[in-house]
UniProtKB/TrEMBL annotation:
Protein name from the UniProt record: SMP-30/Gluconolactonase/LRE-like region domain-containing protein
Cleaved signal peptide residues: 1-16
Organism: Favolaschia claudopus
Cell inner membrane among keywords: no
Entry keyword set: Signal
Keyword presence, Cytoplasm: no
Lineage: Eukaryota, Fungi, Dikarya, Basidiomycota, Agaricomycotina
Length: 321
């Protein structure tokens, strides 16, 4: 999630290296925080200002946001991850968006099973009230481990392993590079497992990192120093494509693409919008690739959510510049 700062003046030189399409603009400007894509192509969307999990069908014209389920004793939702086929973990809490904190003891990781016609929900784990301040933020599934999700805790800076079958929660990683820097309590934010690595962003440090899932040294893949500086909450959640490229939402108004050059170094470029602000992406927060067909295989459409209520599709299959 992002820091609520006044939006920067819109830059005139908005970039679009990949084609984009505005799929939806929430009429109330609903703050969309995170996204998962179901095997049947439909999107699941969380909002930090609503306890309702919404769905949106990107395959039909003029689709709307519809309720899947509303969680009790919560004001907002953060991370979502598909941990078994069409079964999702969702973080619900009593959330203070301006203070960037959740009420200790209110953070529940729900399991949402959509494999039958009727959503089945279960409070799978409760985050310990002793961890305070607390902001359980991004979530990721762990391929090959169908009971487990990993959660980013942004305010102290750690990664927690949550067993959705037993309800057990344990800290897996803690590092200064996962922690925030004062005064903004927003360190590690998005996280995803890919090919044995845990990739994660740290918002106030403005950087993307990865660490081997089994533990080891944290590698810095890039930061925002060449893209508008460091100091505000910037890098939010992201998606990793089949080639291992990382598409990161930059809150100020851009999508940043990280990829490995032939010489092995990671390079970063702005591929949609502008780090100085852009009407194409106003407050982007996260992204996920589309799915289609009977197997629900991934497409090259990247759906980007935003804190201004935009849902934007980016066609990553070909460059237009
Ligand atoms: C979608 O909405 C637009 C604008 O309200 C309208 O002009 C158009 O006819 C709608 N299309 C469909 C297929 O409903
Ligand atoms: C909501 O919170 C109240 C008060 O703590 C509690 O009694 C109730 O069981 C909770 N409801 C659910 C569905 O967890
Ligand atoms: C590696 O390649 C990238 C992209 O071509 C370039 O920007 C960078 O300077 C190179 N690094 C080294 C150490 O040669």
């Amino acid at each position: 999630m992002r820091v609520l700062t006044p939006l920067l003046a819109l830059a005139s030189a908005a970039v679009a290296i990949f084609p984009t399409k505005l799929l939806y603009q929430s009429p109330t400007g609903l703050f969309i925080e995170n996204i998962a894509v179901r095997p049947n192509s439909k999107l699941l969307l969380t909002s930090v200002v609503s306890p309702t999990l919404h769905t949106f069908d990107p395959t039909i014209v003029n689709s709307t946001f519809d309720e899947v389920v509303t969680f009790p004793n919560a004001t907002g939702l953060t991370g979502i991850a598909e941990y078994r086929r069409d079964v999702y973990a969702v973080v619900a809490s009593i959330l203070d968006v301006e203070a960037l904190s959740e009420k200790p003891g209110s953070v529940v990781i729900w399991s949402v099973d959509l494999t039958s016609g009727v959503p089945k929900i279960r409070a799978a784990a409760c985050f310990p009230a002793t961890i305070t301040p607390v902001l359980v933020n991004g979530l990721t599934a762990v391929p090959g481990n169908p009971d487990i999700v990993l959660a980013a805790e942004s305010s102290l800076g750690g990664v927690y392993e949550i067993n959705l079958r037993t309800g057990t929660i344990r800290r897996k990683f803690q590092d200064v590079l996962m922690g925030p820097t004062p005064p903004t309590p927003l360190g590690i934010n998005g996280l995803h497992v890919h090919n044995g690595f845990l990739y994660f962003t740290n918002s106030v440090r403005g950087a993307l990192y990865r660490i081997p899932l089994r533990g080891g040294t944290i590698e810095t893949l890039g930061d925002v120093s060449n893209f508008g500086g460091i100091g505000a909450a910037l890098y939010d959640d992201f998606a990793i494509d089949s080639e291992g490229r990382v598409w990161v939402a930059l809150n100020t108004g851009a999508l940043q693409l990280f990829h490995r050059a032939r010489n092995g170094t990671w390079v970063q470029e702005t591929v949609v919008g502008d780090p100085a602000g852009s009407p194409v992406l106003v407050g982007p927060t996260s992204g996920a690739f589309g799915r289609e067909g009977p197997g629900g295989r991934r497409t090259q459409s990247l759906y980007v959510t935003s804190s201004s209520g935009q849902l934007v599709a980016v066609d990553t299959s070909h460059r237009i510049q």
